[in-house]
Amino acid sequence: MSTGSIAGRLFAFFQCKKLVVWLCVGLCVQILYYSVMNSHENNVEKHLGACQRCFVWRKPFLGRFESHWKPFLTSKSLYLLMDRPFRKELEKVLRFRKLPFGLQSSVLSAVTTLQLLPQQELPRSFASLWCQRCIVVGNGYSIHGERFGKMIDSHHVIRLNDAPVKEHKIDVGKRTSIRLFFPESALPNPLENNGNDTLMVFVPFKPLDFLWLMEVLLKTRNKVRNISGRQPPQEWNGNISQLRILNPYVTYEATYKLLQLNESSRRYATTGIIALNLALHMCQEVNIAGFGYPGNHDNTTPIHYYDTGRSREKELFQHNITAERNWLLTMIKSGVIADIASPSFQAQNC
Questions:
Q1: Bigger pLDDT: 313 vs 343
Q2: Average pLDDT over residues 79-83
Q3: Which of 39, 231, 267, 317 lies at a C-alpha separation of 20 to 30 Å from 348?
Q4: CA-based nearest residue to 252, from 95, 55, 80
Q5: For residue 289, what are the domain limits?
Q6: Do the domain assignments include residue 250?
Q7: Does residue 285 fall inside a structural domain?
Q8: How far apart are the C-alpha atoms of 61 and 64, rounded to whole Å?
Q9: Phi and psi at residue 199, in whole multiples of 5°?
């Protein structure tokens, strides 16, 4: 065998061996790459567990198409509303409807009140978080004795009206990220049941509500009197920098888009459904606790977890409780929201 033939075979052998080595290296790199990627994806999926219902509010069956409106009133938005003809449903509703759905005849009162607020937009500390896992805590008696406090505090917590937390932490938690209220449901000393960083969201239902807010902010003598019997507090000692005014469109959308109530009935959504609508726009995952009222013929079960002496109230006639119950059941069944009291929720969050 010639020297050239041997050299050629050796060269071919080493070339083949080199190719095998490179193939092995490439295979190892691929295996390592996919291992790292799978590990990363698993970690991401685990981290995204709190956002498993991300942006589910976009589903068309909710009937909402105005997704870019601001949740709170601002001076800028009202000036724009007055300076240009309406182009969207949002602007049309605010211009031509009266409170609680629009600002017809109340625009000037709203503008004047906004001048007293140092901040009007959603705080950056809340808006900048990539994943908002929120829970709207209702005031229903169903939460009484359930010991959901720790689970509730693992969310951004949205509370309603004057519901206390100090004596009920074990059931309703102690954290409050946002609290919705109107004059008659205002806490005179909000810091007793909220944090200094709690966003206090004022919900205007009637023109006099703006007058009440102006008077308590200016600390003038309060002249507002409620003819219904429940009087708003004469003082409100909250953190003004954390006070916002809810856009009435939130109430409109909750009433006519979500609940689809008949306008001739002159009923509107409860604060709980209004808060849920706000949460569905602001949060990626929305859960609930303490929702539900006693049945129409149940005059013994208390309405609220904190006032066990009060049974079904006359004021509920302003709302369609049956429609709200049915809507909540539909949303839960569709996976838009979840009730933390349900066995399926508790099984997933063990």
A1: 343
A2: 81
A3: 39
A4: 95
A5: 54-348
A6: yes
A7: yes
A8: 8
A9: -80, 115
| Residues 6+ away with beta carbon under 8 Å from 257 | 62, 63, 64
Crossing angle for the helix pair 89-96 and 75-83, to the nearest 10 degrees:
90
311: left (phi over 0), alpha (psi -120 to 50) or beta: beta
Please give the tally of structural domains in the chain.
1
Strands 285-289 and 178-181: unpaired
Give the whole-angstrom CA distance, residue 219 versus residue 40.
56
Residue 27 lies in a domain: no
Please determine, for residue 323, whether its predicted confidence score (pLDDT) is greater than 60. yes
Distance CA(126)–CA(141), nearest Å, equals 30
Look up residue 246 and give its two tokens: 């809810």
For residues 37-51, average pLDDT: 41
Contact 289, 275 (CB under 8 A): no
CATH number at residue 95: 3.90.1480.20
Question: Mind listing the pLDDT tens digit for each residue in 266-302?
Answer: 899 999 999 999 998 888 889 999 998 887 777 788 8
The residues near 150 (Cβ < 8 Å, ≥ 6 apart) are 173
Q: Which residues pair with 134 in a beta bridge?
A: 156, 286
**DSSP 8-class letter at 154:** T
- Do the Cβ atoms of 181 and 187 come closer than 8 Å? yes
SS3 67: coil
